[in-house]
Amino acid sequence: MIPTRTPHPAPRAQHVTLDRDGREEHVLIDVEGEAWAVLHQDRDDWVVRQGGPTLLWDAMEEHVTRWRRDGTPSLDRFGITVTPEGQTISWPGS
């Protein structure tokens, strides 16, 4: 359900699964970015609530859409640069 085969658009976000009122909820929290999203399945649909300065789930959907449009490249096609100032993930062909 939560994409794990692509570099994450919020790499410091945490994913927690909770049982709430008999249903499984997926919670994404980006503490540094002050953003969150909560998802649960309702029959064949997914219900999403999100908040913060960045709409975390919208960013996830955009990221996965681009990954699929680019032919679902494997993780070994991505580049990661880590410096004391932070990290950068480069997309194949960018």
Total beta strand runs: 6
Question: Whole-Å distance between the termini?
Answer: 27 Å
The proportion of residues in beta strands is 35-45%
Based on CA inertia axes, which overall geometry fits? globular
Structural class category: mainly beta
| Overall helicity | 10-25%
Q: Mean pLDDT, rounded to whole units?
A: 82
Number of helical runs? 1
Q: What's the alpha carbon Rg, rounded to whole Å?
A: 15 Å
- Adjacency order of strands in the biggest sheet: 1-2-3-4
- Helix and strand succession? EEEEHEE
Low-pLDDT segments: 1-6
Query: What can be said about the biggest beta sheet?
Result: 4 strands, antiparallel
Describe the protein.
This protein is mainly beta. It is globular. The protein has one helix at residues 56-69, and strands spanning 14-20, 23-30, 35-42, 45-51, 79-83, 86-90. The longest helix has 14 residues, at 56-69. The chain has a four-stranded antiparallel β-sheet, with no helix packed on it.
Keywords for this entry:
single chain; 94 residues; mainly beta; four-stranded antiparallel β-sheet; two-stranded antiparallel ribbon; 1 helix; 15% helix; globular; disordered N terminus
How is this structure best summarized?
By secondary structure, the protein is mainly beta. It has one helix spanning 56-69, and strands at 14-20, 23-30, 35-42, 45-51, 79-83, 86-90. It has one helix and six strands.
